[in-house]
Design goal:
By secondary structure, the protein is α/β, with parallel strands linked by helices. 34% of the residues lie in helices and 12% in strands. The chain has one domain (41-348): pyruvate-formate lyase- activating enzyme (Alpha-Beta Horseshoe). The strands form two sheets. Strands 2-3-6-7-8-9-10 form a seven-stranded mixed sheet.
Length: 356
């Protein structure tokens, strides 16, 4: 399959974990495709509707600083080749490759479901995370506004919120988020993988460029919202040399805290990442994978709690040491757990109250 400009994955790939069948190219279509305007049609993003029964996803992972999250969308048009959420598309009999970034699902019922969750008797507030699976501010949020509608409910209920995004589109919701920040109810993390636009274009082809993300950090901090920079993922021999520069730039923009994660390559993601390396960095393909394998105990991925985020061996320790020293140098807090208020929570008003 030829590489598609503007997309992260170089191919669709397949999954057998969730029963996804091997896909075959349609020969008749391939014979005729050059007759359509002389070239294959441009791959366009499509959005389908998903109607989940609940919108709060729960987790008990010791590696994660929250126990509940909201994902307004399934799939992500940003097209980050390393995205660990890619395998979730197999639940819909779609590929973790091109399908994941071009065949998206929106959940317009999310605000209604969130209101119902927060209204349940005995609900105990704790920070809700957005952006843990797919980006809440990917391009389709401009039209669907599902993320904004959910934030509006959380703001009205004085409920704590953590946002992680690669997009400066978060600035469109500063009116809601700055209001929450006054009561210590929100923190925002901006992921910056590289400061090099050329690398960013292939690694995260439809995410805002690095300069826009740094500007988002500046405006978030200026609005009185705790701004966090997440240097993630760090890819050995591709982006690891930029760690200190990213932390310095984020600190100058106003970030108060930082974290980093070494690239993770779950089951279906590893072959897509290897194909991406072969396409864009054939000169160092073997070197990159050798370092990743060394960090992951001899495998492409280590799924074990505890070690999966930190890695093993000299390379992991070297990155950890560099990160710690850079954070000290630039005055960035390395605290792992965010402290947001939960004592201000008030359940959504009932239907009768909404009449007044």
């Amino acid at each position: 399959m030829a590489r598609i400009d503007g997309r992260g994955a170089t191919r669709n790939g397949t999954s057998t974990r969730f029963g996804l069948p091997e896909r075959e190219q349609d020969g008749d279509w391939l014979d005729a495709r050059e007759d359509v305007d002389g070239s294959p049609p441009k791959l366009r993003t499509t959005v389908m509707i998903e109607h989940p029964k609940t919108i709060l996803a729960r987790n008990g992972s010791p590696d994660i600083a929250f126990d509940r999250s909201i994902n307004a969308y399934r799939g992500c048009e940003h097209g980050c080749i390393y995205c660990f959420a890619r395998p979730t598309h197999a639940f819909h009999d779609l590929s973790p490759g091109i399908d994941f970034e071009s065949k998206l699902f929106a959940k317009p019922d999310a605000p209604k479901l969130l209101r119902a969750e927060l209204s349940k008797r005995g609900y105990r507030p704790a920070p809700i995370a957005m952006g843990t699976n797919t980006d809440p501010y990917q391009p389709i949020e401009k039209d669907w506004r599902i993320t904004r509608d959910c934030i509006s409910i959380l703001r009205d209920c004085r409920h704590p919120l953590i946002i992680t995004t690669k997009s400066d589109r978060v600035l469109r919701d500063l009116d809601l988020l700055s209001d929450m920040a006054k009561d210590g109810l929100v923190a925002i993390g901006i992921s910056v993988t590289s400061l090099d636009p050329r690398i960013a274009r292939t690694l995260e082809p439809r995410a805002p460029r690095p300069a826009k993300r740094l500007e988002a950090i500046r405006q978030i901090a200026a609005a009185g919202i705790p701004a966090h920079v997440n240097v993630a993922p760090v890819i050995p021999a591709i982006t690891d040399h930029e760690m200190e520069n990213i932390l310095e730039a984020a600190a100058l923009a106003g970030a108060s805290s930082a974290s980093f994660i070494i690239v993770r390559l779950p089951y279906e993601v590893a072959p897509l990442f290897r194909a991406w390396l072969e396409e864009h960095f054939p000169d160092r393909n073997a070197k990159v994978m050798a370092i990743i394998n060394d960090i992951r105990g001899g495998r492409d991925n280590d799924p074990q709690f505890g070690s999966r985020m930190r890695g093993h061996g000299v390379w992991a320790e070297l990155l950890k040491t560099r990160f710690r020293k850079a954070c000290i140098r630039y005055g960035l807090n390395m605290a792992e757990r965010l402290r947001l208020r939960t004592d201000l929570f008030r359940p959504p008003p009932g239907d009768q109250m909404e009449l007044f």
